[in-house]
Amino acid sequence: MMNKKLQVFVSSTYTDLIEERQAAVQAVLEAGHIPAGMELFKAGNLSQLETIKKWINDSDVYMLILGGRYGSIESISGKSYTQLEYEYALSQNIPVFSVILTDSFLLHKTSLLGKMVYEQENPHLYDEFKNHVMSKIIKFVDDEKDIKISIFATIQEFINDYQLDGWIRGDYDYEDLKTQFSNLQARYNSLSKTCNKQRSIINKINALVNMV
């Protein structure tokens, strides 16, 4: 396994967990593996769901980051895309693990993002999904550092416990792999800039509110 690069599908709601997703992507890259799924988290139609399934099928590991939101609802099933991704990964016997933000972590995030941190429209669906997730392999996290630590530890556990294919074969083009990693790092840097801009806007809004 030492030369194999695992593809790790990272799933979560999006606008409320931008920084946490960044931490996960960075941790996967730093562990020498390949993150996937960053570009898929927008509400869409059935064709998008099929695309998501293909990405999950091509991945070696599925990771869920669960905060306080349930996510966009897929109209046919009545479930969130995040839940559908999670259930599909389980149905395909892909190794799954989840990190769940603690209450204190969520409370801290409310000081930055306000009530959008918590599910407003479908709290009962969120509670049901969270209970289901907690019946499987989970780790509670208090900050982004905990997310990274959980990823490092869990990937190594999965390498030891599962016969995972990974991406590299004997005739794999290593130059192509370097290009892929460079592109992934560039995507991470772009996400980081976006997050910093959003944080700046939120801070300005909070400052204006405090002046009123």
Keywords, separated by commas or semicolons:
single chain; 212 residues; alpha/beta; five-stranded parallel beta sheet; 7 helices; 54% helix
What does this structure look like?
The protein has 212 residues and is α/β, with parallel strands linked by helices. Helix content is 54%, strand content 11%. It contains seven helices and five strands; from the N terminus they run βαβαβαβααβαα. The chain has helices at 18-30, 46-57, 81-91, 103-113, 123-133, 144-161, 174-211; strands at residues 7-11, 34-36, 61-66, 96-101, 138-141. Helix 1 (18-30) crosses helix 6 (144-161), helix 1 runs antiparallel to helix 7 and helix 2 (46-57) packs across helix 3 (81-91). It is globular. The chain starts with 6 loop residues before the first strand and ends with a helix. The mean pLDDT is 84.
How large is the radius of gyration? 18 Å
Approximate helicity band: 40-55%
Instruction: Tell me the strand percentage band.
Output: 5-15%
Total E-strand runs:
5
H/E element order: EHEHEHEHHEHH
Q: Numbering strands along the chain, what is their spatial order in the largest sheet? A: 2-1-3-4-5
CATH domain topology: Rossmann fold
**Total helical segments:** 7
Largest sheet: 5 strands, parallel
CATH homology group: Toll/interleukin-1 receptor homology (TIR) domain
Protein name: DUF4062 domain-containing protein
Domain DUF4062: 7-89
Architecture blueprint of SSEs:
Elements (H helix, E strand, L loop, with lengths): L6 E5 L6 H13 L3 E3 L9 H12 L3 E6 L14 H11 L4 E6 L1 H11 L9 H11 L4 E4 L2 H18 L12 H38 L1
Parallel strand pairs: 1-2, 1-3, 3-4, 4-5
Helix pairs in contact: 1-6, 1-7, 2-3
Protein name: DUF4062 domain-containing protein
Pfam families: DUF4062
